[in-house]
Amino acid sequence: MPILMTFGDSNTHGTPPITQRGAYERYDAATRWPTRAATLLGPDWQLVEEGLPGRTTCFDDPMMGDHMNAVMGLRIALNSHGPLDYMTLMLGTNDVKARFGAGPESIVAGLAGLVDIALGPEMAARHPGLKLLLICPPPVQELGPLTGEFIGAAAKSKGLAPALRRYCAARSIGFLDAGTVLETSPIDGIHYAPEGHAALSEAVATALKAL
Asked: Is 49 helix (H, G, I), strand (E, B) or coil?
């Protein structure tokens, strides 16, 4: 019975496009891409959802808190569950916020550190044969109520896919460019409409089966 963990930020958590800051909303299980992907994979698959809104690859967030840094969160998740057979990792959207000053290469470096944790000797003993799929989030758009936090983010996020593709090829890790199957919502430029979640779920299921 394969066990899949989906580790990411608000777009893995299932946050819909934001129209009002401070209001908490989440798509239901029938809409979120992780649960939809698990359904497509088959009834024998088990799913562990680990999406945290605001999560970064490796940055402590001065506004949202140090716990947004994925390094400790991933260690906790990997020690809380298992043995896992598959894991998806989709982060980088929050890294392009203006306050972090991160470009594509530094975001890939943050992801590389997370990969080293997930596939390192310590976790290999707990999750032998873990198969990893890195998902590059689609480029953000600078519009809507979150624009002030993402000044300059559109250009930076467009450079992430080619840089991450090169890294995954060098490490022989599964790669999926989510920007080839969906765009961020024009409501806030960050999150996905329901049809985006549907498209991503199909792409993820296909990619996982191919690992």
From this structure: strand
